[in-house]
Prior knowledge:
Chain A is built from eleven helices and four strands. Chain A is mainly alpha-helical. Chain A has one domain (2-164, 198-291): ABC transporter involved in vitamin B12 uptake, BtuC, CATH 1.10.3470. In chain A, a hairpin with a 2-residue loop joins strand 2 and strand 3. Chain A starts with a helix and ends in a 14-residue tail after the last helix. Chain B has helices spanning 2-33, 50-80, 87-151, 160-177, 181-200, 208-228, 230-233, 259-262, 270-296, 298-308, 310-315, 320-346, 356-369, 374-393, 396-401, 411-425, 448-460, and strands at residues 34-38, 44-48, 239-240, 348-349, 433-434, 446-447. In chain B, a hairpin with a 5-residue loop joins strand 1 and strand 2. The chains are: A mainly alpha, B mainly alpha.
Amino acid sequence: xxxxxxxxxxxxxxxxxxxxxxxxxxxxxxxxxxxxxxxxxxxxxxxxxxxxxxxxxxxxxxxxxxxxxxxxxxxxxxxxxxxxxxxxxxxxxxxxxxxxxxxxxxxxxxxxxxxxxxxxxxxxxxxxxxxxxxxxxxxxxxxxxxxxxxxxxxxxxxxxxxxxxxxxxxxxxxxxxxxxxxxxxxxxxxxxxxxxxxxxxxxxxxxxxxxxxxxxxxxxxxxxxxxxxxxxxxxxxxxxxxxxxxxxxxxxxxxxxxxxxxxxxxxxxxxxxxxxxxxxxxxxxxxxxxxxxxxxxxxxxxxxx
Amino acid sequence: xxxxxxxxxxxxxxxxxxxxxxxxxxxxxxxxxxxxxxxxxxxxxxxxxxxxxxxxxxxxxxxxxxxxxxxxxxxxxxxxxxxxxxxxxxxxxxxxxxxxxxxxxxxxxxxxxxxxxxxxxxxxxxxxxxxxxxxxxxxxxxxxxxxxxxxxxxxxxxxxxxxxxxxxxxxxxxxxxxxxxxxxxxxxxxxxxxxxxxxxxxxxxxxxxxxxxxxxxxxxxxxxxxxxxxxxxxxxxxxxxxxxxxxxxxxxxxxxxxxxxxxxxxxxxxxxxxxxxxxxxxxxxxxxxxxxxxxxxxxxxxxxxxxxxxxxxxxxxxxxxxxxxxxxxxxxxxxxxxxxxxxxxxxxxxxxxxxxxxxxxxxxxxxxxxxxxxxxxxxxxxxxxxxxxxxxxxxxxxxxxxxxxxxxxxxxxxxxxxxxxxxxxxxxxxxxxxxxxxxxxxxxxxxxxxxxxxxxxxxxxx
Lengths: 305, 462
């Protein structure tokens, strides 16, 4: 029981990170129907930006307050990663809009390879570890030798995720920007006729996806304390799995899917085998797409002739 | 009047370049401007690289300025000017089309002799092995994947799984039972085809991007199983000491009954390399030939019909299940052949050789070549694989960038960049014309855009 509760806590933390990345996938797929393959690598780039900002803030500027440092890192990472994704969209995806279906996917795969190797060349192939920023934990349950703990960094992950998701939900659901996005999602041509700047809306979608990926990247760095140039691929595929599981195109679906994937992964590792935890995640992707292609909350895809 | 307009254009171009510089500065600031290094106490500290950062920023700004002042006006001029009909090109084209393929086949047949002649007996091993065999493996994989992606229109991102199945089948069966290469080659192909059907079966209903992602998941699952099933595959450590293929029973060894001794030659590893070269050449040509013949069979026509419109296909009574499964199976079979050849050539395999990057490379070759075009696949393989192999050779760059400069590091970087650039520049691939397999009286090449047009129109207005 204690193990189960502990794994539940760990799983929700991991799932929050997946959920944040999954939103980027689901929004881009919803609006232009493209699997943004490079999104996982954008997440990895954001973790590196966060790492470098953190080093500047702590060792050069000498800021010791953890909250302030974390806030600065978060803001800088979100801004710069958004800029990166905006540029990627302009250079690699926008010229291909209206081209044949596979072109953007191939371009995105190329971009993914480029980003990964760019970071490897620029920062070196070794793992980058930072000293733990936040230490300490709450003991929730105690039963013999087992303790169920909720560490402060897990609480930070939960809180930051929840606050940013709420803000994000507000933007999509209540502002005119969100309305424009949903309009483009349904019918780009009609939206353009009604005065929505479609190109700008798509750009902003990429920027928002990247900002949330940057939150995920910062949280990943803080939670695990280590980042590597190849860390984008597997979390990227898992986050995509989360987006598919929740129903691609659906924002609450992406978050729920992320939490589910996080939980399944940690519980699988705890009860079955750590070696095959990625196999479990990939199998879920295949099984969902085969048996439940519309996901948990998505609309069924009607085929029209 | 011209002067103010030109001045305005210049001012706009400079503004543009300035904005590009600012953008480039912020983009590159964290990852280029700073470098994380480990100090003696194993902590991470920052170093700055302002020089490099400003170098890149200046490069971006100059590039942008050059584009808006030189390239953009040139392209505009070219677009507005009526192009004169190029008479010589039109006259040469049929001759080129007639003789291009025989010339290429002739060239690859004499390539080993040519490289021995040019690079000498010792120096040619590198050219035949690193360039010839390496490129031909990818040509073969590209041709195999071309059946699945180019002809049947099923986007497969996990193609490397079948390559792995072929390689491991050969390695394990040859080591355990001691069967010969030529016995195991068809067997490895059959096993890979079997896996193709097995993995193809669940994904029959999926289309487009979804199919791509599920096949990617399958490819990764197979790789993870290869890593973790240590009893069978020896995990990360891989399988070494895989038996090499022999020339009609004569091994390529320095022994008395080896190839060199039997034919009264001095022993040299070059003979095996040449033998392997012709082996993979034969396999690649076989793949190309089978594909050409298959396109004329009902099944090949069904594949192409499936690529163009699945619903129309089904309403015309084509069994889409069988059509898709045969495409998966035949594509996988060729990957299995290539895999067992790879294992036999290397003598060592590990899961590291079968990562997603490999699938992406093969897919890139097929797409960049122009979906469905065999010549395109060959050209793309030469450009992508030969080009990245060539980067290894560029020791001259060390003189420019200093002795620490290692060009191989930049291999995949350039590769990824090339994938994006070619997609943006020519989204239809290098050879984008499609030769119809059925025609009335005369064969006309169709621009690939024309065949896709009906689809895109329909998708926009359902």
